[in-house]
Amino acid sequence: MITFAIFFFFAAVAVIFAAVVVLHRNPVVGALSLVASFFALAVMYVLLEAPFLAALQVIVYAGAIMVLFLFVIMLLNLQHQEEPRTRPVQQFLGYTSSAAFGLALIYYLAKFGVTKLPDGPFVSDARTVGIRMFEAYIFPFEMVSILLLAAIVGALILSGRTGAIPPPTGENKL
Amino acid sequence: MIPTHWFLILSAILFTLGVCGVLTRKNGITIFMCIELMVNAVNLTFVAYARQYHQIHGLLFVFFVMAIAAAEAAVGLAIFISLFHHRHTIDVDEANLMRW
Question: Is B88 on the interface with A (CB under 8 A)?
């Protein structure tokens, strides 16, 4: 069946590019791989009958947020610098604990997961989402607008050069 | 129709990769990208359960999570720019003023 083929292909794409983000030492390669992973997740949203969220995923995540990441990487001139090695004990503890966490999560999901889908189509176009948003969630919506305003002000204050910056001492190490 | 728990298992794998990156990397921006990966895995879980139970509230939560992730990315990257101006590195091991 073609749907299953699409699911497995884009699931593999999402997992492989996410692994590249985790393993690659160069942040530019990591950011571009994360964009590819987000595109694969947008395909997952289309398979889950939520095309409006797929469009939002491409526009907001792959468009806006990842461009912000790439801008900061270029601004700080990090694309040629290699990250120093993590200590072996930290690597060992990180890999084993996250592998144990992931195995436990997948075990319980496979054991207790629901398998029967309900009948009928799931209507989740932009019109339905918008009506429900402005009926039931108008107060959180306004709160999010205030939060975004606060984030703009905070980002401007934090990233502006205030006070005397000492001259760089030695070479730019990462 | 693809069963819901396949999407949940994919989401669990992506979340685990994000946890692994946060625990093992030292570059601050890479750690931040791994956090975004975890946020996206949780979004996939929300959408999968929204289809499973025919509830549109899950999609609205994904909307709010996206807005908050945008705010978090803006403030976090501003913090890293400020850290780079002061210490000339974004290695999180160097930001150890409050370390016990």
Answer: yes
